[in-house]
What we know:
CATH topology of the largest domain: Rossmann fold
Subcellular location: Cytoplasm
Number of helices: 18
Family: Belongs to the TRAFAC class OBG-HflX-like GTPase superfamily. HflX GTPase family.
Structural class: alpha/beta
Function: GTPase that associates with the 50S ribosomal subunit and may have a role during protein synthesis or ribosome biogenesis.
Radius of gyration: 26 Å
Oligomer: single chain
Cofactor: Mg(2+)
Strand order of the largest sheet: 8-9-7-10-11-12
Subunit structure: Monomer. Associates with the 50S ribosomal subunit.
Shape: elongated
Amino acid sequence: MKQSIHDVRTGMKDRAILVSLVTDQMKKQEEIAAYSLQELVQLAETAGVEVLETLTQNKDRADTKWFIGKGKVEELRALIEEHEATTAIFDQELSGAQVRNLEESLDVKIIDRTQLILDIFAGRARTREGIVQVELAQLSYLLPRLSGHGKNLSRLGGGIGTRGPGESKLETDRRHIRGRITELKAHLSEMVRHRTLHRERRRKTGVFQVALVGYTNSGKSTLLRELTEADVYVENELFATLDPTSRTLELPSGKEIVLTDTVGFIQNLPHDVVAAFRATLEEACEADFLLHVVDSASPMREEQMRVVGEVLGELGASGKPQAVLFNKIDLCTEQDLQMLTAPFPHLRISAYNEADLDKVRMLIQETLMGDTRTFRIPADKGDSIALVYRIGDVAESSMDEEDMLFRVNINREDYEKVEYLLSPFEVKEDKQGE
């Protein structure tokens, strides 16, 4: 259920004018600039804001004092008075001084894209780790801008832009906020340590890990739910899932893997968000295989794929084995379907089509089972035999005196990952079985 943000004075939703600055440099990518503003509308609606109108300013560069220029501020003021707006939301990031100047001139709450995304995250976080990461991101973003938010916080005791850390924390001095940031980082480090231990435990058991990555609202959570029957929140809105969810998925061979849904990416993802959510996004870095889920029906599909590639690059995960799942093909025309190509292995699917889900399972299995190896293991080595079944697909098994012979389909990465857990005798390939 979508959570609305209300002005605590009236009990009404924030009423906002959305503002975008298109510089000369951005004019070369007018389609992307227009899409960014459209996306800002979706973000505002996701945050529970009533969007009244949008305003675009074309300018050589951002005005250091007013961001959109004094003349455009007057035009914005007229719109605010006409529509009785309570908030102005900017599609780009503002400095503390710009926020302060706009506040004093317009006498409404001033929010930028970063703060809006962080506010949505604050409403989405459910686990302790997610809540800590959101507060850390919000405080890291607001610390250098405190001087620009004083009037916001004194005028309104709540609403968009103040959810999460809250009014009282933001009104304390910088020293106390820095102390809180240090405390949150310590909490997060401990959580990261526990998460790393869990990942190491999974690795030692030879469990294959697959991460679903992609642009927000591309259908990752739906795919996780349909593949694993997981009880996860699914909604047609941005950032419906914030905390990572891992579930066991059984492949056609009977082998089980871990499938993880990660937070959705978005263009201009705030630096503070990437930094604070690095622990969560590391699920993508630690995965053996990435499934890049794409909204096939989006007119900005290629741009969204580019953004996901950039964020994976920032995380150091761009070189990982991956496949592209062009989702939502039921919403595409035949012409659209012909355009769905990628430099990686790819499938065209609908997350609600069982035959397509079977294709996804087979794709994972074929990626997992790359090479065929033959192992000779003493029959009394139950742990080693169980490990062989976990790390690959046992195609054939037989007895040879006191030993078991196994022909196993397994990729090189999985083999090397568990090789040290088996004795030299056990991993020695039986040449006669080749």
